[in-house]
Structure formats: C-alpha cells, structure tokens
Specification:
The chain is mostly helical. Helix content is 71%, strand content 0%.
Amino acid sequence: MTAIEFNHKILSLSDSLKYFAYSLTSNREDAHDLLQDTFVKAIVHKDKFDPATNLKAWVYTIMKNTFINKYRKDTKVSMIIDTTEDLYYLNNSKTNADMTPESEVSLTELQKVIDELEDEHRIPFLMHFQGFKYKEIAEKLNLSIGTVKSRIFFSRKKLMEKLKDYQN
C-alpha cells in the first residue's frame, strides 16, 4: 500500500473517529486534538501496520491508547507532593465546604446508582475506578481479562443510561 493510499484510507475513517474521540473525551476541542494526534501517530508509524489486518481497528487502537496515555499523564501531573513539615497539606483534610449542594446531590445519586449494580459488574467497575488495571482485576477476581473489560463496559453503559440527566 502506498503512502497516498494509506493516508486516503485513514482520512476516510475521519467521521467515525470523530465520534469515537468525542465519546472518549466528552469535549469537542479535546476530541479534535485527539483525532489530530491519532492521525499523526498513524502516519508516523505507518510502517508498523500490517496490510493483512484491519486498518480501522488499528487506528481505533491508536486513538484509545493515545487517550489513555494522556489521561494517565494528566493524572500524574495533578498529583500533589507535600514537602511541608508533618505533611501538613495531606493531613489537613479538606472539608466539604468546597462542595455545593448540587454536587453533593449528584454524588449521592451517583453512589446510589453504582450500588444498584449487581456485584459481578459493580466490583470490577469500582476496582477499575480506584485505579486497578484490567490484568490486576482479572487476577484478583479470578476472571479472564475479556470478562473484566466487558463487565466494566456494561457497567459504564448501565450508569450512562440511568444518569442521562447528568450528561452534558
């Protein structure tokens, strides 16, 4: 496959990739940035693509991994390192003064909906939410990674259905 054919095929996936990017980021500008990053990575690493495989799946995987890596990087950047004596900032717990009544209600509603999930979906979802990787969850619950991924996926889907009023 020539570079022109490759680029043309990737650009033909643009619309579906935009929707996927938006589903990951929930923000149009971030979705556009993610789409651009995905195109750049796909073109730069064109030599790693096996023409006998599915181009669409390959590009979607690039986008998903780019999003995950950016999320992890942003999470690390927002960590607070407390160098004060006796770890003053970490030990000085924040009060709920920062929470508005609306956010308290939203948090309560979210927790209630999560608690309504069946154990087989709720436990992997909460473990993933707490930062466990799929492999760790699979090992701790004695499940296959595919089962863990599908349970987390269906948990998210159920939560999104039940919490439609809270979506943008």
